[in-house]
């Protein structure tokens, strides 16, 4: 079938809007007509020098839309169903069976390689050249995406599908890190480092959990203002002197029970760990830093540092939960979104990178 897509042909080049040919769905596969696709910080891995992400490629891993075609063996979905696309997983390894699909044995191969498991190209351009299209099992910067029964999540009808894509990754990561992975409880304290889409979703989730102290840290004043509106009890400029001491002071002096870093900036991660009380836990969800250096004495005093992928969520249960909370007015993730036509993808990327937009959503 003929589709339109934003194609990245070089790490340092612009996206090009192209007409491509997409194969029909194979066994276990689903074609989704995309209504909207969020742009996530992880999509910037396509800009990494070298061949970390093969080119040309269609990126995008926060798609939402309507099922248009089903391959053999797909159960629980029908043509016309509204869906959100999330990350892919094998469903059979030990971690998937333990309800930790984000830690799937094949996580990197299924999500970061942008290549089908059988290696066969499924999208071709006008000259017959292959275009990689399995980024996070979807490649949703397009009019249509090819997903799997594992990463296509049915949602109720009658919702604004163009806004739901970010629930598949960034918003899910922030919210589930607080509610599932860290398990923040009523009366506890948390500091969130980075008030982008992931961080602000974490702030909203901390409010839902009943946290007594919610500290948001960022460099952009408008984002801190929004964090206050969404539930933060304290906000701090990330450029302030002795950030960890200021976080501890805001939490009453002892330090926070939980910290969540979405920046992947080594100095910020060090401050996040130093802001913890003894027995505190720091979750790391940021991507990009090659290494972190931590004060070993802090860890010896009972503090824990935990890597978190996709919030340790199971998308088929957590995405509907977020939607229901949103419908009740308790999880206003839509306040993070700015929409752009797919043709303006370069502008959306620039606005996000410069902090003008929190969560761009591209409309094909």
TrEMBL record:
Signal sequence annotation: none
Co-factor requirement: Zn(2+)
Record's keyword annotation contains Disulfide bond: no
TM stretches of this protein: none
A Pfam family that the UniProt record links to this protein: ADH_zinc_N
InterPro entries recorded: ADH-like_C, ADH-like_N, ADH_Zn_CS, ER, GroES-like_sf, NAD(P)-bd_dom_sf
CDD domains in the cross-refs: benzyl_alcohol_DH (cd08278)
This protein's UniProt keywords: Metal-binding, Oxidoreductase, Zinc
Domain Enoyl reductase (ER): 15-362
PANTHER family: NAD-DEPENDENT ALCOHOL DEHYDROGENASE, S-NITROSOMYCOTHIOL REDUCTASE MSCR
Family as reported in the entry's similarity comment: Belongs to the zinc-containing alcohol dehydrogenase family.
UniProt protein name: NAD(P)-dependent alcohol dehydrogenase
Source organism per UniProt: Actinomadura graeca
């Amino acid at each position: 079938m003929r589709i339109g897509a934003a194609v990245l042909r070089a790490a340092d080049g612009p996206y090009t809007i192209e007409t491509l040919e997409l194969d029909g769905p194979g066994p276990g596969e689903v074609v989704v007509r995309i209504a909207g696709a969020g742009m996530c910080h992880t999509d910037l891995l396509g800009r990494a020098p070298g061949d970390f992400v093969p080119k040309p490629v269609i990126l995008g891993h926060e798609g939402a839309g309507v099922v248009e075609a089903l391959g053999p063996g797909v159960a629980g979905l029908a043509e016309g169903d509204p869906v959100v696309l999330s990350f892919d997983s094998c469903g059979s390894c030990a971690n998937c069976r333990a309800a930790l699909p984000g830690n799937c044995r094949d996580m990197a191969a299924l999500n970061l390689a942008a290549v089908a498991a059988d290696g066969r190209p499924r999208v071709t351009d006008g000259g017959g050249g292959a275009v990689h299209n399995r980024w996070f099992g979807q490649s949703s910067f397009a009019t249509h995406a090819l997903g799997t029964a594992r990463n296509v999540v049915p949602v109720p009808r009658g919702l604004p599908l163009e806004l739901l894509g970010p629930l598949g990754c960034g918003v899910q990561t922030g919210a589930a890190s607080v509610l599932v992975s860290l398990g923040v409880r009523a009366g506890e304290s948390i500091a969130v480092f980075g008030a982008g889409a992931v961080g602000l979703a974490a702030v909203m989730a901390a409010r839902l959990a009943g946290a007594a102290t919610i500290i948001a840290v960022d460099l952009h004043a408008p984002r801190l203002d929004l964090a206050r509106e969404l539930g933060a009890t304290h906000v701090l400029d990330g450029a302030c002197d002795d950030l960890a001491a200021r976080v501890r002071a805001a939490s009453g002096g002892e330090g926070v029970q939980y910290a969540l870093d979405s920046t992947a900036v080594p100095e910020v991660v060090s401050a996040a760990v130093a802001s913890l009380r003894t027995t505190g836990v720091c979750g790391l969800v940021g991507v990009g830093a090659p290494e972190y250096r931590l004060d070993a004495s802090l860890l010896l005093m009972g503090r824990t540092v935990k890597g978190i992928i996709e919030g340790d969520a199971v998308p088929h249960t957590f995405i509907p939960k977020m939607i229901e909370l949103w419908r009740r007015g308790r999880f206003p993730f839509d306040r993070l979104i700015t929409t752009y036509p797919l043709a303006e993808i370069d502008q959306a990327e620039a606005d996000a990178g410069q902090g003008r937009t929190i969560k761009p959503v591209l409309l094909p």
